[in-house]
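Weekend entry, working from home. Most of the wet-lab plans are on hold until the incubator is repaired, so I used the time to fold the two sequences that have been sitting in the queue since the last round of cloning. Logging both here for the record. First:
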Amino acid sequence: MGTTTGQRIKALRTKYGYTQDAMAERLGMNRANFSNYERDVATPPADTLSKIADLLHTTSDYLLGRTEDASPRREPAAPAWAAPRDKRDLRKMLEEEEVLFDGVPLSDEDKQRVQDVLTGLFWEAKMMNKRKKPPER
């Protein structure tokens, strides 16, 4: 059996020198709740899991055991004109749980390639929309 979500969270938390109290505080919860995640008593909801992954410089897929690659999530390059809201919209689009082709899940490598293409198309569409908007007065 592979490592559990809780074991992966604990290993990375220790690696980065966080205490359970520090993690819980950053996540806006009490230590007991966070401890339950590490002991696999409870499973973090998707939004909390994403925050944990961000704090531990990894991906939700790694924490869930969907990949063995614990390397940090690559933040797609954004154009200089991109507003924080634009960047948030892109992240939301790319965080789809499962990418399928012909009903079959894509490998992590193929999923990354699709995300790279979508990122380029996203910024191209945003640029075109900005050009079409009349100037604000």
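Second, folded right after the first finished:
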Amino acid sequence: MVDSTGVDTNGESMAVRIVNIVPELLNFAFETISNGRNAVQIAVDRSTRLAMRLGAEGCAVVGTSSALECVSRAIPPDWTSFEVEDARSSAAYLRALQRVGDENADTLVVSWIDQPCVQEELALGLVDLHREWWCDYTFADGYPQGLAPEILRHEALGALLVLSDESGFARGFLFETIQKDINAFDIETEVSDVDLRALRVVLAADSRRNLEACRRLIATGNRELGDVVAAIGRDGSIQRTLPAWIDVQITAALSQDVSYEPWSRGDGTEMPAAAFRDLLNRIKSFAPGATVSLGAGGEPALHSEIGTVLSALHESGLPFYIETSGVGWSDDDRTRLQEFAFVNGKVIVFLDADDPHIYHALRGEGFEEAHQFAEWAVTVAPDRTYVQATRLPESEEHLRSFYHSWKDRCAGVIIEKYNSFAGRLPDRKVAELAPIHRHACRHLQRDMVILADGTVPKCMQDIDASEARGNAFHQELETIWENGSTEYVHQISGDYGGICPGCDEYYTVNA
């Protein structure tokens, strides 16, 4: 066991180094969070205190030269810097961590320089657990990302490098690399008494929405771990900051009559391309980094200015998805799709079945065109194309072959649960997937839907906009979003109103 001075109770001294990884993009890390201080300053203070408690060998930062330059003024002179040669390479960061450990540190306590909410009590407990069992990797499970560091044995880095590659770097790169051969590593876990993972709360200043979560958590004044966990679990303002996913219906026109969807083909309402471009600018200002999805109750290919729409999406810099049946795309529009959407966006093709008879029963005409479109998309951009099927009694026994036939050809295959739209359609689900205990709706927490005429319904299930929040063309997005805050807080308390009691989409998540 380890005491607060960093000495093993068996008499062996600790050889620990505190490591802060510096992300390449620090767009929000220098914004004030609390008492005039930003995320980097708070993280530096936290690491310094933790190093003193553990009697650590010191503190270090790891990042590219440009990232290290960005934080240089906030880094104490006695901290050591280790440069990474490639910001996109997980292997490059592992090599840098090896160099950190070369200076007599057998245990690395790894977190990120833009994570201001790492809990000292939890970090000390993880180090304690790690050294007690002398394992390769120790982490906290069930806590929000950014609340705990990861503990890594320096000797494990060689094995991790064998499994890593020169791409795919992300915040979870340590665990993602370990997962490639998880049985090769000794792992210990500190499990939270309350599983908060489903909330998708991220405590890092890597986006506006996550920055707000950090700011609001710190503002509670809670310092004890139990109080912090309780605040995250009950405080709607921490859970619900800004939308992460925004569905935009650029047109209400449909190319198919789909048997399991409530929309009809008759309504051809269209959002003008100029209005859409203006809307994107407002989204960037309101919720920078939010993912925009086209296809809410309409076929994007049928928009009269789809080329201009795709160009606007590309120029916005926002991550985005095009959700399409694959029916209705002209050759010229496919060229625009290839030019714009496959650069910083992704395409989801609703195919449902490879059998033409099943396809016709579910989606009507269009089997050959849809599948030809999907084949074209996976040829042009296999890593940015998904095909999707909805689980239904008519197609359930064919889904395995559908999955395997497409899995090796594109980025992913999505098997979606059936949606009755809060009981509006008959119950056709083939499996009960809902959790035993109901919780607040993830879509009310994270999503916004904007229809072609600017109406913002309560959610995607509110297809008649009977519980609309406002109109995006006539009101500020911030005002409309806040109009849903009270209901979300009520749901945290178990109070579900309107169309919600008959809905089972509350546990599904878009992003």
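Plan for Monday: verify the second prediction. The first helix runs from residue 39 to 54.
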